[in-house]
Amino acid sequence: MEARSGSAPAGGGWQGNGAPRASRSARSLLFTVVGEYLRDPGATLWTAGAVAALGRLGVEERAARQALTRTARDGWITAERHGRRTLWRLTSRAADHFRESAESVYRARRHPTDWDGTWTVLVTSVPESRRELRHRLRTRLRWAGFGPLGQGVWISPRVGSEKAARQVLDELGLTASAVSVVGRIGGLGSEFEVVSRAWDLGGLARDYAAFAAEFSDRRERDGREPAVVFAEQTRMVHRWREFALRDPVLPADLLPARWPGHDARDLFFRRHDADHHVAAAWLGALS
């Protein structure tokens, strides 16, 4: 996920450059925590609570505090001093960003719409010399549901992706050099060839199956402490967010039979619906 107000941390497709692996992991997990639990209006988190929450996810205190500092510096969270203590909340721009990204991570995946065979094709380019801008464009377009066909050509099976692409291009100052086309595949090539070029279905299938195996709700889950629920829930969300960069909720018409993503989706929402309030309540009670 690309930040509007700073560089997004690693995880879920967010990759920092040059930072130690432990630091990237801490920031990535913090990013998931604030995106999942602080995007509601008025939600806050004390420093000690953030450290304790990240500790439950295997992050050491020093790395957790560094993650808070860097995430604030990049404009995602803001500090509010209360004596010697610090209360954190999302910045207004970050809150807007997370609410919008929830569409990709949750709503569009819970209730995928039918597909009418229409594609959105985007043609844009960034000079090789502007590598940072190229990286930001690639990341943002993937979040918007596009897959690359090469040579600056991107494609999405969702007509609504054009609006999202325009927003990305506007924010990056690239609108003047882009062209979009909406229509159907013609007589040359096939839809399945397009999908196999733009998205790694084999890798997605393996990772969806691994996700379902790791977070299977067949395991004994009754009687778990709220802290354990928080850790399991947050790790699951952290993993699930990765799919938003790699799978634009491809229509069933374009997927192989017995697609493992369907089972992974059903599992995710069953567990998320059952455990989110417990995890959020545990985190909110930390001080």
From TrEMBL:
Organism phylogeny? Bacteria, Bacillati, Actinomycetota, Actinomycetes, Pseudonocardiales
Q: Where is the Transcriptional repressor PaaX-like N-terminal domain?
A: 25-93
Enumerate the PANTHER family for this protein: PHENYLACETIC ACID REGULATOR-RELATED TRANSCRIPTIONAL REPRESSOR, TRANSCRIPTIONAL REPRESSOR PAAX
Region annotated Disordered, chain positions = 1-21
Name the Pfam families for this protein: PaaX (PF07848), PaaX_C (PF08223), PaaX_M (PF20803)
Q: Where do the Transcriptional repressor PaaX-like C-terminal domain residues begin and end?
A: 199-274
Q: Which residues form the Transcriptional repressor PaaX-like central Cas2-like domain?
A: 113-189
InterPro entries, sorted: PaaX-like_central, PaaX-like_N, PaaX_C, PaaX_trns_reg
| Protein name, entry field | PaaX family transcriptional regulator
